[in-house]
What does this fold into?
Amino acid sequence: MFRGINPLSLDGKGRLAVPAKYRQPLLDTADGQLVLTIDRDRCLLLYPLPVWESVERQLIQLSSTNARARALKRLLLGHAEECALDASGRILLPAPLREFANLEKRVVLVGQGNKFEIWNEQAWNDWREALLRGGDDGESLPELDALAF
Amino acid sequence: MFRGINPLSLDGKGRLAVPAKYRQPLLDTADGQLVLTIDRDRCLLLYPLPVWESVERQLIQLSSTNARARALKRLLLGHAEECALDASGRILLPAPLREFANLEKRVVLVGQGNKFEIWNEQAWNDWREALLRGGDDGESLPELDALAF
DNA sequence: CCACTTTCCCCCACTTTTCGCCACTAACTA
DNA sequence: TAGTTAGTGGCGAAAAGTGGGGGAAAGTGG
It folds into this structure.
């Protein structure tokens, strides 16, 4: 399980050095193979390949005639890029994805269980502050209201 | 599985250079034989020939009395063009299809699992921005709300 | 059926991107 | 304080994307 928040810098070519603590697990479970895609909140999602493949299977089975399903498929599948840890434990973030998530230099890598999120550092801070300030603005969901943690 | 977004340029003759990473898979599974057709969203669809053939079989079996089915058939079947990777890994996009999808110079090739979509770059960006901004405007679909990814 | 025009495709050259490699610095450990 | 490991940066070779010239093939009109 991936946890925690890691402030990092991209180098001049848009490469991200995966923190050392995650490298061995990634090599063990996915042979260093990863998939990057985008998220609606303008950050990137980083999956170990096997995890992504299971997500992908779900996506492919969605209807091709329903507009919402087609859109979601297009977003996630369409932006998914395979990449691999290089010899120094880095991955190259493809330019179109970097652009989408506004990643230039300072970024944060956020562990999210079976995947990571990659945010522009400023955007991450802003998002968090806004959430804390703004309180509850999301839709309701029964499972949510039943949560104890 | 084809994934990812690839910004490309058509050359002066309307040819599209398929990114190198997809070439070998296409040669292996389809001997470089491809089928181009159009999509409702004013982009083109690019299938490996065997995949297209299975789509085609499904289409042919659709009702000939239902108007929506007839329309879908006409669109997809009627615009389908066979083409092949040339020696440099490029395909020629027939002029009528190029025109339909407004493809001139800058385009994006979007992997969608078993096929690709080819968009005018600007149209693609506009579509994506509208989707992200507008939020959920499609029909609802129970499977969608149950998705965790 | 022949000549002319247009389209298509092979080939080569140029430019940009990608990626392995190595080196430097900062932080942590012993 | 010295040794080790992690993060960062940059060089350079190799690969991929882009563009154009010219010959072959196909389509068109007389």
User: Anything to note?
Assistant: The first helix of chain B runs from residue 20 to 30. The helical segments of chain B are 20-30, 49-60, 67-78, 95-100, 121-134, 142-145.
